[in-house]
Amino acid sequence: MKRQSRHLRSRSMHRDNKFLLLLHNISLGRLFFSGSVLYLLLVVVLVNHLSLLPSLNNIHISIDKTLHELAADNKHKEGASACLLVNDENPRLPEWIAYHYHTLPLRSLTVAVDPLSRSSPLGILRRWNDTGLMEMQLWNDDDYLYEIAANGAEKKRIEVTPDVHGHRMRQNHFINKCMLDFKRRNKQWVLLIDVDEYITFNRIDDNNQEPDFPVEKAPDGIPTLMDWTWDSSEGVIEGWIDTLSSPTKVATGSLVSMPMQIQPGGVVTDSTGDSYYLRDDRAVRDLDALDQPPEPMPILKYVMADSDDKLCGEIFNDVYDEKWDESWVCFEVDWEAPENEQKKTNIFHGGYVVEDLQQRKYFLEKEQALWPKRLAVEDAKDARERLPRVDERKTILDVVKEESNRHGYETMGPCIMMPRLRYGSFEVQPEAATVVTPGEIDPKNFVTLRYRWHGAKGVYVYGKTMIDVSQIPTEELQVEAENVHAPLCHYCPRQEWYYSPQYVTSLFRVNHYLDSFEAYTYRKDIRVELRQSVDRYNTLAKEGNHSMDTEGSHWLQEFVQDMGSENAKMLLAGVGSFPRLDWSLSKILWGK
Question: What pLDDT is attached to residue 40?
Fold first, then answer.
């Protein structure tokens, strides 16, 4: 230590450095320790308090008159909001924001960053925030991973485990807290999709194979299959046929029908030549569903079947075991009752009564009472035929408003369910109409223009939603969401792997882009083994290379025309570029 002090003193005298003269009695060890503490404090402040407040915005962008005029005009027009949970998504984010700004139109966005992310979207969000075109928020865990204590004032931090279950929990809490924030800010429609997903009109493509429109009843001579399930591993459908004596359980032969025809109201044919009509069980059940229990009995809410086929839910008015209201219970149910009974099963559907093995009765809450009303098949077909072409400049919200006025709001909201369509890895040369400002904005960097080959329509399970939060009670948003596909069980129809939003009757869909292998493996999230698997990528790519869109997209060209070339270039900077990221940065920023 004496040698170090003498060395410092010698250097300070030699250089006549007044700053070092003040430090000549401080050891290098203490100086290093102090600097490290200061650095860590700065990191903590940056991580825990990242926001888009002007005081933190050190990037000053020169905004020209065009953007000022657009921003002023936007204040007088209705716009949508969105919630995004991201993880190393900076290469995709510029396109996602610009696309939805133009087509939705997106005007408010809240982004949360996964702690495993090695990069921050702050710079991208600042660019948009400075223009005044959109309201941007950047959240960290403290903004949404909490629950309100019983006294209604204190917040209790929610701990998330570093596994897939924890990842799902993080998603569910973020979705509802984000929607709650938008509700408090008097917003209306909130889009809930991922950064590799893009909402679009579900236009009928006469040049591309589509599922048949469902029929309301079985064609003559074709038996009706009830309570059917699709076993994709065996290639058969199991269900019940209502015969004169009693319901009979049957299994089809191997199906020869395309998977896209497996839908409620569809007709399928097996390898023996037998055809079956797949009844829309939900629609039929709803006709007889009760609003209240027919007699005093416990009520089950948030009902689900667990992995052991037990029926679970929150119980109210437990006259059997006197459990507290909202207690979580599970019990065994005989899903296949004796043949001499008229009802062959305990019906797992809201508004019905079920019995456990002790023959104790429970009433399943009619959760579907507030689900959007189904359009008749012909009305849905007419609505799809009215959908605008890509060059008509109509937005998603324009169509929501028009169809709500035509058929009633209850047919659209408050939860719009949208099927998804997977896009694979086959690339196409962007059309001439999409090439703008050559050398500056390359359309090949945009997944919405680069990839037009997609999977078979109507077979991608689980959809996504857009929700009118102005119609959702606050208490529904103060708890964890059900899941990312149907967040609110009282407003969004349940989704099963074989019972997703019907493709042919949906006005909107969500395009899900696989992108290149480089892009697929770029994100290092909790599912890292799947994200780094070549076999997994090739399987998904094959599923997404069924047929090609015959209708191009002009959104980029129109976006550049509206914004001006220089402004568009600024807002789209970095799109499609995947710089190398180091895990050590994640460790520094997030401690992971």
Answer: 47
Q: Which residues contact 323 (CB under 8 A, 6 or more apart)?
A: 315, 329
Q: How many CA atoms lie within 13 A of 62 on its CB side?
A: 2
Alpha helices per DSSP H over 262-305: 281-288
Rg (CA), the chain: 28
Angstrom distance (rounded) from CA 143 to CA 141: 5
User: With 0-12 CB in 10 A as exposed, 13-18 as middle and 19+ as buried, what is 272?
Assistant: exposed
What pairs with residue 138 in β-bridges?
111
Q: What is the CA angle 85-90-94, rounded to 5?
A: 95
State how far the Cα of 359 lies from the Cα of 345, in Å rounded to an integer: 13
pLDDT of residue 51: 38
> What value, to the nearest 5°, has the Cα angle with vertex 151 and ends 146 and 152?
55
Angstrom distance (rounded) from CA 345 to CA 205: 40
The C-alpha atoms of residue 198 and residue 103 are separated, in whole angstroms, by 10
**Tokens linked to 274:** 């037998």
Beta strands of 243-335 (E only): which ranges? 247-251, 267-269, 275-278, 299-305, 311-316, 327-331
pTM (2 d.p.): 0.83
Whether 433 shows a pLDDT value over 50: the answer reads no
Per-residue pLDDT tens digits for 453-473: 999 998 888 899 999 999 999
Q: Are 196 and 515 in contact (CB under 8 A)?
A: yes
The pairing of strands 275-278 and 267-269 is: antiparallel
Mean pLDDT of 382-411: 91
pLDDT beyond 80 at 530: no
3-class secondary structure per residue, 504-551: HHCCEEEEEECCCHHHHCCCCCCCHHHHCCHHHHHHHHHHCCCEECCC
- Report the amino acid identity of residue 491: Y
Q: Hey, how many other C-beta atoms are within 10 angstroms of the C-beta on 498?
A: 15
Other CB atoms within a 10 A radius of the CB of residue 218 amount to 17
Cα(398)–Cα(405) distance, rounded to whole angstroms? 11
Residue 479 has pLDDT above 60, yes or no: yes
Which are the contacts of 432, defined by CB distance < 8 A and separation ≥ 6? none
Give the pLDDT confidence score for residue 37 in this predicted structure.
Answer: 44
Task: Examine the pLDDT at 244 and tell me if it is beyond 70.
Answer: no
**500/419 Cα distance (integer angstroms):** 7
User: What is the distance between the alpha carbons of residues 80 and 397, in angstroms, rounded to a whole number?
Assistant: 8
Structure tokens at 170: 């993080």
Predicted pLDDT at 499: 60
Residue linked to tokens 């507030």: 370
Both tokens assigned to 125: 């969000």
User: What does the pLDDT read at residue 231?
Assistant: 84
Q: How many CA atoms lie within 13 A of 53 on its CB side?
A: 7
What tens digit of pLDDT does each residue of 15-31 get? 343 333 333 333 444 43
